[in-house]
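FW: tagging you since you asked about this chain on Friday. Here's the raw sequence from the shared folder, copied in full. Didn't touch anything.
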Amino acid sequence: MNNNAVISNNANQDNFFGELQRTRFQQFTSFPSTDGVPAGWVIDYNGQLHQWNGTEWVNLAENYVHPEYPLTNNPFQTNQTSGLLLLSQLLTNSSGHVIKVAGRNLTNADIVSIVVNDAIQSGTFTWSSYKIKTYVENFIGQSLTGALIYQPGGYTPSTVEGSMTMPSPATAAVIKTGMVWVITANGWVGNEPVSVGDHLIANTDDAYNIPKNYQIIEKGIPDIVDATDMVKGVIQIATDIEAIEGINITKAMTPKSTKAVLDAKIKSQTWHIGDGASVSFPITHGWNTVNVDYICYRNTDNRKINVSCVVISENDVQIDVLAPLTPNEYRITLTARLD
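HL: got it, structure written out here
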């Protein structure tokens, strides 16, 4: 075996309940020193697993055999061919073990008949989900005053200067203060011109088609300013060189310049290793950095494999494995971030 193929973990390892496959515990023929060792260390001592509990070694091979407590009755152990079987009894012994399970079939008396009736409010009938939704929306729309309440469907203004088309409320029977419509066409609200995207807001109940009862908010920006990290505005596109330098604070990056930065700062390349005999594989990447990470997969099934990756120089790493690999058995992808 290759003594260099060792992965050192100086931290706890969480496998998210994944299985440990083809794994051996460290083997001893005499108990090792436990100076400074916390409780929980598991070893293979003469073919049996032992655990250090902080005071002594405990033989884990001495397994406890749970006694059996057969149920005297269990109606749920066979398939039900009709009806619905309910759990009606659960008995335990003094040790807390279940010794009896009983059941009964669901009867018509257990079922309450429900009638849907959207026409009236009643303690006997119930409403459909559509009726409930409509009622709640109308109730909220008629009770809220001062809130901005969006009205679906939009608003088509008058085409004649000096006149106004009355907007149509959607969340209440009448127009309420705070109802908002999005204007869907160019036109007029009284003597004020409006355009697509402007907003019409009622500032009083029962506003009807009286222009003074509405507030108009224009979507246009009268003064366009340079954008900052605090203010919306216009912005210039950075060149690839400016993006790579990363010092300009007034220009924006595009997908093209972003790719240029990634190509310049992030290096990545894949090699296939394995020749049927070797357990060490030197790789020259030529990136002039020791900050290199790796990921390894087995080509036959694309399974991720942990191997030893040792930095030899700023341009070279060495991959070590336990046993020789078949030709091109693994593929290694090296990645580095350059300053």
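FW: The chain has a mean pLDDT of 86.
HL: agreed, and The radius of gyration is 38 Å.
FW: great, closing this out.
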